[in-house]
Amino acid sequence: MRLDPKSKAIELATLEPVVALSHATVWSVMKLMVEHGVRRIPIVSEGGKLVGIVIHRSLLDYLCGGPRSKLWVEGMRGDFSRALDLPIENIMSTNVISAPFDATVWDVLNLLLKTGLGGVPLVKDGRVEGIISERDFVRFFPEKVGIPVDYHMTRHVFTLSPSDRLDEACRKMVSLGIRRLPVVQENNLVGVFTAMDALSCFTSPTAYEMITEGRQEELFGKRIEQIMTRNVVTVGSGADLGTAARLMRENGFSGLPVIRKGKLAGIISEHDLLGWLFYALYPKRPKR
Q: How far apart are CA 263 and CA 257, in angstroms?
C-alpha cells in the first residue's frame, strides 16, 4: 500500500496514547513504558495539557549516572529508593517537539527525519490527540524495493560484552544516543541489549526487592548476559530493504543486526527505512 503524502498523519497514529500526569513518580512512568511497550510518554497537567515528554533514554540517564542522576546521587544522598519516588516533572523534557493535529504524512516524515526522533505527539489545543512513530510508517514499506540492506545500514556499530555491567551499558547507550547495543563474544553475536531490556530489569520484582533492601549496587552490577535479549532476529547484508521492514513488523523490533558471512556487519533501523521511504516515494514536496 502506498502512502499519500497529503493525507493526515492522525489517520496512521495511535489515538488516545499512554500519558502520565506531571506528578506521577519515576517508578510509575517506567512501569507504564514496560507494560505498554512504548519508548516515549507525553506528560500532561491535571487539566490534560501537554507539559513535557519522557523517553526511555531520559530515564536511563537519571537512573544510571547521567547528568540527571545528580538529582538523587547528590540531592538525595544516593538513596535510590527515594529517587524512584521523584515526580516525573523533574526529569521530563519541557521542550517538546510535536506536530499539529492536522499535520500531513509528509510534514511528519520530514519532522522525524530532521530531528532524529522516533515519534512525536500530535497536538490540538494543547492536548495530545495521538502519537505517530517510525513504526506507523514502516508498516507501509514495500515488500521489495531492489536495494540491499547494506546500502542503508549503519556500519560503525558500538557493542557490548556479555560481562559488561548494567549501569555501564546504560551510560553508553545514553551517551551515544542509541536504543540498542549488540552483544558480542569472540566476534560472535550472542544477544542484543535494548533500552527496554534495561527498563524491564529495573521494574522487575527482583529489582524492587533489591532497591527496597538498599542493594542497588547489586542491581547496577548485573551482567548484561543476565538481561539481554538472546533470541536475536538478524538480517543478511544482501537482503532487500523490504525484507528488513517485514522482519521488524513481524517481530515488533525497531532495529536488526545485519550479518555478513556470519559476522556482525551493521545495524538497520526503522529510522533508516524512513529515510528511504521519504526520498524514494516522495522526491518532490507535494502540492497542498
A: 10
Residues of the chain with pLDDT under 50: none
Task: Please write the tens of the pLDDT for every residue from 227-245.
Answer: 999 989 999 999 999 999 9
CATH number at residue 268: 3.10.580.10
Domain of 182 in residue numbering reads as 149-281
Assess whether 127 and 154 both reside in one domain: no
* Residue 47 is assigned to a structural domain of this protein: yes
DSSP string, 162-209: TT-BHHHHHHHHHHHT-SEEEEEETTEEEEEEEHHHHHHHHTSHHHHH
d(C-alpha 74, C-alpha 221), whole Å: 20
pTM of the predicted model as reported, rounded to 2 decimal places: 0.91
Cα distances (angstroms) measured from residue 150 to each of 17, 38, 260, 265:
34, 28, 9, 8
- Asked if residue 93 lies in contact with residue 20, where contact means CB atoms within 8 angstroms, the answer is no
pLDDT digits (tens, 9 = 90+) for 190-214: 999 999 999 999 999 999 899 989 8
**How many whole angstroms separate alpha carbon 75 and alpha carbon 70?**
7
